[in-house]
C-alpha cells in the first residue's frame, strides 16, 4: 500500500499550497501584503500541474478502477470524486482567467479573484477530506495485495509532489516557498 503514502504526501503538498494561497489572499484583503502576481500565478501553476495533471489522473485511471472492481457499491463515491476532479480542473481554468482579470483591473478586481480562489480552496479541502476519510480507508480494507501492486507502481511513477516524476516541480515548489511570506514560506513580509 505504498500508494496510500504517496497519496497522503500529495495531499499534504497540495494542502500546503492551498494554505499558503489562503494566507496570501487574507494578507492582500487586509492590506498587509501587496498583490504579487508572479506568486499568484505560481500557486495556480502548481495546482494545474500537480493535482490536475498528475495526481487526479492516477486516481481516476488506476485507483478508482481497482476500487470499483473490488467494491462496486462504492460507485456513488467514485462518481462524486471523479466529478470533483473534473470540476477542479474547470475551477483551475476559471481561477487563471480570474487572475488575468484581476491583474488587468487592479485592486478593483481583487474581490472577484478572491471569490474564485476561495471556491477552489474550499472545494479542494472538501475533496481531500472525502478521499482521506472515506476512500482511502475503504481501499485499505477492501483491496487485495495483488490490487495494490499495480496501484503502487502507478503512483510510484509520480516520485514526490515537491519534485515530480522528472524533477520538473522542484523549482516551482522552491520558488513558491521563497515568495510566500512566513509562516507558510520564507519570502519577504
Give a brief rundown of this model.
This protein has 189 residues and is mostly helical. The protein contains six helices and no strands. It has helices spanning 2-30, 37-70, 75-105, 110-142, 145-156, 170-179.
Structure characteristics:
0% strand, 189 residues, Four Helix Bundle (Hemerythrin (Met), subunit A), mainly alpha
What can you tell me about this protein's structure?
- The structure is a single chain.
- The chain is mostly helical and 189 residues long.
- The protein has a single domain (2-179), classed as Up-down Bundle (Four Helix Bundle (Hemerythrin (Met), subunit A)), CATH 1.20.120.520.
- It is 79% helix and 0% strand.
- It contains six helices and no strands.
- It has helices at residues 2-30, 37-70, 75-105, 110-142, 145-156, 170-179.
- The longest helix has 34 residues, at 37-70.
- The protein is elongated, with a radius of gyration of 18 Å.
Q: Could you spell the SSE succession in H and E letters?
A: HHHHHH
Examine the coordinates and then state which fold CATH places here, giving the name of the CATH topology: Four Helix Bundle (Hemerythrin (Met), subunit A)
Low-pLDDT residue intervals, each spanning 5 or more residues: none
How does CATH name the architecture? Up-down Bundle
The biggest sheet, with number of strands, parallel, antiparallel or mixed sense and barrel status, is: none
* Mean pLDDT reading: 93
Q: What is the overall silhouette?
A: elongated
Indicate the radius of gyration in whole angstroms: 18 Å
CATH superfamily: nmb1532 protein domain like
Distance, first to last CA: 41 Å
Class by alpha and beta content: mainly alpha
Amino acid at each position: 500500500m505504498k500508494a496510500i503514502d504517496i497519496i497522503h504526501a500529495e495531499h499534504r503538498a497540495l494542502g500546503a499550497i492551498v494554505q499558503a494561497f489562503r494566507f496570501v489572499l487574507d494578507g492582500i484583503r487586509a492590506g498587509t501584503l501587496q498583490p504579487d502576481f508572479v506568486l499568484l500565478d505560481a500557486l495556480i501553476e502548481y495546482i494545474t500541474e500537480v493535482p490536475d495533471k498528475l495526481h487526479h489522473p492516477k486516481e481516476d485511471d488506476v485507483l478508482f478502477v481497482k476500487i470499483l472492481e473490488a467494491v462496486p457499491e462504492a460507485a456513488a463515491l467514485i462518481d462524486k470524486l471523479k466529478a470533483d476532479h473534473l470540476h477542479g480542473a474547470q475551477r483551475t481554468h476559471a481561477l487563471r482567467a480570474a487572475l488575468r482579470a484581476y491583474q488587468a483591473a487592479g485592486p478593483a478586481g481583487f474581490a472577484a479573484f478572491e471569490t474564485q480562489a476561495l471556491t477552489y480552496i474550499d472545494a479542494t479541502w472538501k475533496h481531500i477530506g472525502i478521499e482521506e476519510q472515506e476512500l482511502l480507508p475503504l481501499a485499505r480494507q477492501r483491496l487485495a495485495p495483488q490490487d495494490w501492486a499495480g496501484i503502487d507502481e502507478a503512483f510510484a511513477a509520480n516520485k514526490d509532489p515537491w519534485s515530480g516524476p522528472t524533477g520538473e516541480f522542484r523549482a516551482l515548489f522552491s520558488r513558491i516557498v521563497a515568495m510566500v511570506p512566513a509562516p507558510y514560506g520564507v519570502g519577504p513580509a
